[in-house]
Amino acid sequence: QRLFTLQTPEVEASGRVEWFVATGKQTPKKPFFFLQEFKPEKNGGNDPLGQLLIAMVDAQIMNNNPEQILYGCYNIGRFWFFVVLTGKEYAVSRAYDATQTDDLTDMVAILQKVKVYIHQQLGLPAPDSLLL
User: Among 69, 66, 78, which Cα is nearest to 10's?
Assistant: First the structure.
């Protein structure tokens, strides 16, 4: 439940991100991966993609690296969407259905790749196990 505030000459926005991976102990530093909070399928009036992007762009600013590639995901009901932000451009994956075995396998594989990416960014050796 961290509040991220984005202030640039073009935009001012804020939002709360549910969960993220970052360096630092009490205060997050160098965020790498974001998970936007769950939104129900029915009556989902919020904008999880917008909230996620605010946090990701703010992380680029916090990291002093506006071109940094960041990864995140958000879910609406049983559907998970993975997001990549590079500079000022982003892409959103197709919907992965958490009730389908093949999609769950793909989701775990994506999260495992993110784990490897985080290790690389931190200059750590590749994880011994790709298990989450």
Answer: 66
With beta carbons less than 8 A apart as the criterion, state whether 82 and 110 touch: yes
Tell me which residue has tokens 């991966």.
33
Question: How far, CA to CA in Å, does 74 sit from each of 26, 33, 51, 71, 82?
Answer: 24, 11, 9, 11, 7
- Residue 31: strand pairing partners: 22
Nearest partner of 118 among 5, 32, 8, 6, judged by Cα? 32
Angle at 85 between CA 16 and CA 56, to 5 degrees: 20
Tokens coding 132: 């989450």
For 48-83, the three-class secondary structure string (H helix, E strand, C coil) is HHHHHHHHHHHHHHHCCCCCCEEEEEEEECCEEEEE
pLDDT the model gives residue 19: 65
Model confidence pLDDT, tens digit, residues 76-128: 889 999 999 999 899 999 999 999 999 999 999 998 888 888 888 878 888 77
Selection from 9-13, 70-74, 126-130 with the highest mean pLDDT = 70-74
- Is 14 in contact with 53 (CB distance < 8 Å)? no
